[in-house]
Automatic annotation (TrEMBL):
Keywords: Cell membrane, Membrane, Phosphate transport, Transmembrane, Transmembrane helix, Transport. It comes from Aminobacterium colombiense (strain DSM 12261 / ALA-1). GO terms for cellular component: plasma membrane. It is found in: Cell membrane. It comes from the Bacteria. This is Phosphate transport system permease protein. PANTHER family: PHOSPHATE TRANSPORT SYSTEM PERMEASE PROTEIN PST, PHOSPHATE TRANSPORT SYSTEM PERMEASE PROTEIN PSTC. Part of the binding-protein-dependent transport system for phosphate; probably responsible for the translocation of the substrate across the membrane.
Amino acid sequence: MKKEQAPGIIIMSISSMGIFIILFILFFLIKEGLPVLKEASLLSIVTGSDWYPTETPPALGMLSLIVGSVAVTILSSLLALPISLFIAIFISEIASEKMRNILKPILELLGFLPSIILGFLGMVLIAPWLQANFTILSGLNLLNASILLGFLIIPIVGSLAEEALSAVPLELRNASYALGATRWETISKVVFPAALPGILSACLLGIMRGMGETMVVLMAAGGAAIIPVSLFDPVRPLTSTIAAEMGETPVGSPHYHALFFAGLILLIITLAINLLSSWIESKRRVRPS
């Protein structure tokens, strides 16, 4: 083996190992999840709202779990994404160099905040506040979990969107200013559109972070497997269901296979978001004339 070929072979080996691990996880999910279809049809699983997997016969409807995951992800994204983008624009385009050097590391450090700490804050601070101010039975609900997930999403989206904005060539800004545009016109009509693919990727990464989060929703969402009709209703997303029930589930039981099938549904939803991201990005890509 020639010396110059070694780095390429090492990188290829590590990449292949990563792909193999991902394929193994996918195979394991399918192998352990699909046997649940012997107990219940696919239609009854995705449209049924009764989740009583330990009864005889088990009720394995996951609609309430799927709706819980989607609801908490959408609400947290609606709360977090606008704030994240304003933070990114401020750091990239408005803040001074000195302030940027302070704010950017702080934003990145917030991304490493353990989710269990946020869950704890949600239980001891936000839940009692919601209960006292909105006269509800419990502060552990959809809104509480969404607020906490928003705190997790903001540093991720804010940091990545800031990098996308900073990567826009300075010549574009200078050309805009030379044509008489104001700073806001330059940001909104030149810099932001130029960075849009990167910003979109950042937003979708944040959404997927919210979809896959476990600890926060386990601690703050209330844990009731119902379809929410109000912001103050408790929810039970797929992730918290898997985390809460897998440890006490007999291996090989319908309940065991149903939890793996829930993981498979979560993977499919995440994959759909990825494909949507690729489709939107391809639509916005400028084709050479």
